[in-house]
Automatic annotation (TrEMBL):
GO MF, any single term: S-adenosylmethionine-dependent methyltransferase activity
A family per Pfam: Methyltransf_3
Species the sequence originates in: Gossypium armourianum
Protein name: Caffeoyl-CoA O-methyltransferase
Keywords, sorted A to Z: Methyltransferase, S-adenosyl-L-methionine, Transferase
Length: 202
């Protein structure tokens, strides 16, 4: 994981990666829940993907999606070196059509132990509508960046960077919707940029 972090730090988008503490948290969480069948939306260079792959058993699976294969391939050699690449099925695609296709097949419903969402922040609520059907009862969905640089608790007129302002309303809308969704119980963790864990109840 250290090697992949160092590699990612040299990449121009490195601010977008999951933080080291989030990676360690994900790794431990997945071991604790004995996750086997998982999904990740938003791979980038694969830091959170590696943290997940290392936690799964030898026959564990991760369906990983990203619109950019090039960045995934940058980190892939580290994932291969760690001996966990066989657990990953990478799809170069926007996540939404892949989710819609998965939902067409009844056997995918309620089949995922864990789903990590870290892409396309203004679509999280649209993902949630689909993911709640795909995760198993008792399984977890983790939404990354739900603190959104602290902006979700900042005063309305606080000076914010442009990209923070851009997604702030979407993240706040997601947080409010998750808090009142009766199908889940949630826990918002102030790790990294905030991860909201949602456990499906029914
Ligand atoms: C924040 S990065 C992911 C970081 C990664 N989880 C990690 O911890 O290193 C977001 C990624 O989402 C991808 N992305 C953006 N829109 C997407 C979409 N609609 N579907 C899937 N991936 C998308 C981007 O290409 C980018 O690599």
């Amino acid at each position: 994981m250290k090697e992949l972090r160092e590699l990612t730090a040299k990449h121009p988008w490195n601010l977008m990666t999951t933080s080291a503490d989030e990676g360690q948290f994900l790794n431990l969480l997945l071991k604790l829940i004995n996750a086997k069948n998982t999904m990740e939306i938003g791979v980038y260079t694969g830091y959170s993907l590696l943290a997940t792959a290392l936690a799964l058993p030898h026959d564990g699976k991760i369906l990983a999606m990203d619109i950019n294969r090039e960045n995934y391939e940058l980190g892939l050699r580290v994932i291969q070196k760690a001996g966990v690449a066989h657990k990953i099925e990478f799809k170069e695609s926007p996540a939404m059509p892949v989710l819609d296709e998965l939902l067409q097949d009844e056997k995918n419903h309620g089949s995922y132990d864990f789903i990590f969402v870290d892409a396309d922040k203004d679509n999280y609520l649209n993902y949630h509508k689909r993911l709640i059907e795909l995760v198993k009862v008792g399984g977890l969905i983790g939404y990354d960046n739900t603190l959104w640089n602290g902006s979700v608790v900042a005063p309305a007129d606080a000076p914010l960077r442009k990209y923070v302002t851009y997604y702030r309303d979407s993240v706040m809308e997601l947080n409010k919707a998750l808090a009142v969704d009766p199908r889940i119980e949630i826990c918002m963790l102030p790790v990294g940029d905030g991860i909201t864990l949602c456990r499906r109840l029914r």
